[in-house]
Design goal:
Elements (H helix, E strand, L loop, with lengths): L17 H17 L7 E4 L3 H7 L5 E4 L6 H10 L5 E3 L9 H11 L4 E5 L6 E6 L13 H7 L3 E2 L15 H10 L3 H12 L2
Helix pairs in contact: 1-2, 1-7
């Protein structure tokens, strides 16, 4: 989770209260993971105190400092704090449900390393592996292709799955809201439009 004053830059200019939206996305993503019976622990990599405060009450959450250097460096820091089977999720999946996550994890269990492509088909919204060393985080432009090249199997997850809808633009957010976002995002969206 980036510091809130730098998060979701592509939403700035089109929506009000973007830091609050970014925090809400993270809270709802983590809450869905925390509610999954398949998830034992959640490692949140962040230096943002508001994020730490908002997430601290969720089951299984622990924090690691952001080493700076971008998303892949943050993921590497999180992986160093884990053992056993691991899953990497971005912090901007506000429509994620435990059921959608569990369905993907059941598919991922058949492979040493797996991934879910985002709704565009070009990005990545989930990486999973049986052990941390099997993951090769390569987030950024064209991450789906890069993760496939690194040996991650693309899981067959339907386009309407909330797991595929990360939010980078106002249009993405509109689709996520249509799918049904978590409580924190619903409040933040209402406040954003009220303040626009």
């Amino acid at each position: 989770m980036k510091r809130l004053d730098r998060a979701k830059s592509r939403l700035r200019g089109s929506l009000a209260r973007v830091p609050q939206l970014a925090l809400a996305f993270c809270v709802d993503t983590a809450a869905a993971a925390s509610a999954s019976p398949l998830v034992e622990r959640i490692v949140v990599v962040t230096d943002d105190e508001a994020a730490r405060s908002a997430l601290g009450g969720l089951r299984g959450v622990r924090f690691e400092a952001d080493p700076s250097g971008g998303l892949n460096a943050a993921i590497a820091a999180g992986l160093r704090a884990t053992t056993g089977a691991v899953v990497v999720l971005p912090a901007d999946l506000p429509a994620l449900t435990p059921e959608a996550l569990d369905a993907a994890l059941a598919l991922a269990a058949a492979h040493p390393a797996a991934m879910v492509a985002d709704h565009s088909g070009q990005g990545t919204t989930l990486l999973a592996a049986r052990v941390p060393d099997a993951l090769s985080p390569r987030f950024g432009e064209g991450s789906r292709r890069l993760h496939e090249q690194a040996g991650h199997v693309v899981l067959e997850v339907g386009e309407t799955s909330p797991l595929r809808w990360d939010v980078d633009t106002a249009d993405d957010l509109a689709v996520a809201v249509g799918l049904g976002v978590g409580a924190a995002t619903a409040r933040a969206v209402a406040e954003s439009f009220a303040g626009a």
